[in-house]
Amino acid sequence: MKKKINPTRQELLRLKKQHKVAQSGHDLLKNKLDSLIQEFLSHVKELQKIRKEIETKTPEMLMDYLKAENNLGKNEIDALVAHIPEAELEKYDQNIMGVRVEEYEFKNKKEIQETPFSNKAGDYNLEKSQRKAFEILDSIIEYATLEQKIKLLAKEIENTRRRVNSLEHVYIPEIEEAQKYITQKLEEKERFERTVLMKLKDFLK
Question: What sections of the chain are H helices per DSSP?
Answer without folding.
Answer: 9-72, 74-81, 109-113, 118-121, 124-166, 172-204
